[in-house]
């Protein structure tokens, strides 16, 4: 009498991982200007170790290679702007060569992961204290109103603007910028809108949702100044207040979610893979200098 032994989980191919990523963060949802997708790698190659990071900078690539990763999955694309050469005399070319020579593929999930459920903005609004399952997109996708850019939702209990900023400061990765805040620190806020990454194009949408505070990154002077002036206008009661984080910090909270979701989906398809989330700080700024006190 023989006992049939079930087949153990096998390692996926790169094509299998890309297909799983497309299920979680559909590539068709990326913005027209984006370059999400596979940038380096053979689809038939076996993937045993995946390294996750926000930016495909040299230090991250080195970390992935030294860890023996077969795939580096980043939020930001390496080749977002058009290039005509990947010669190793430039930093993008050196990155491509480093990856190819060490048999490490490169996959990016950028604005598609911004729009997807359990994506970048869901992780950010959860850090604010809003149940991400109850949050709605600021800009819903046609045909799928549960997905889209940004999120808006309600805190379980109102807090002051300062308390919300302190909460985020404790949960976001540390950066030289920290958090910049515009608004009355003692004003209580309840409805929170967020957009991971650059979000100053969504001010009108945030106002239309009646948000008390808007959490995003890369706020430029003129849009932020105009939003502040409008918030102080008749009937606005100082809303929305603004919390401006460093770009990479506003997106990094998604990485552990992405790792867990990707591993769970691959396992359900019969694959096993080791996934590591990088903790390297890839924000480009090193320090700030304040004016001396009088």
Automatic annotation (TrEMBL):
Gene Ontology molecular-function annotations: metal ion binding
InterPro entries in the cross-refs: DUF34/NIF3, DUF34/NIF3_sf
Keyword terms: Metal-binding
Entry-linked Gene3D superfamilies: NIF3 (NGG1p interacting factor 3)-like
Superkingdom per UniProt: Bacteria
Keyword Metal-binding: yes
Span of the signal peptide: none
Positions of transmembrane segments: none
Binding site for a divalent metal cation: 75-76, 114, 247, 251
GO cellular component: cytoplasm
Sequence similarity: Belongs to the GTP cyclohydrolase I type 2/NIF3 family.
Quaternary structure, from the entry: Homohexamer.
Protein name: GTP cyclohydrolase 1 type 2 homolog
Organism per entry: Kocuria tytonicola
